[in-house]
Design brief:
This protein is mostly helical and about 140 residues long. It contains 6 helices and no strands. It is elongated and about 70 Å long.
Length: about 140
């Protein structure tokens, strides 16, 4: 059962293998800058390490942005089904973090939590903590 305490998801290949390896590569390339290798080798190792590191960050950013667009579209549809009104009028008053947090609310809680988020500007964490009937999301990045 997914809830506020266990909803954080780690992707092992990214979080525990790729990210640490690229960070180690950057650190080693910086250490090499102060070694006896020639300047060309030092610059090459630094460029390769930074390229791999930045590639992993950019890939993660793309996935997160795509996920945000999907969540926004899902919430627009759910809100329209529940109210017959467009979500975009409220969407502009919410942060992306609040919208993501509202995604976990059940249909029974979505409207009241959306109204509370807009009127009281509650944090994404407070929104998630307020959810009684958690809508499970096993497919996020």
């Amino acid at each position: 059962m997914q809830n506020f305490k266990n909803h954080t998801r780690y992707y092992p290949l990214h979080h525990f293998i790729l990210s640490p390896l690229t960070l180690i590569g950057v650190i080693l390339s910086i250490v090499l800058l102060f070694s006896d290798y020639g300047l060309t080798e030092k610059i090459f190792f630094l460029v390769v390490a930074l390229s791999v590191f930045l590639t992993s960050l950019v890939a993660r950013m793309y996935a997160t942005k795509n996920q945000d667009r999907t969540i926004r579209a899902e919430l627009r549809l759910r809100y329209y089904i529940l109210t017959g009104k467009r979500f975009e009028t409220l969407e502009n008053k919410l942060t992306m973090g609040q919208i993501v947090a509202l995604r976990f609310a059940s249909d029974e809680e979505l409207l009241s939590l959306t109204e509370k988020a807009v009127n009281e500007n509650i944090s994404p964490k407070a929104i998630k903590e307020s959810i009684k009937n958690w809508l499970v999301d096993e497919h996020r990045v």
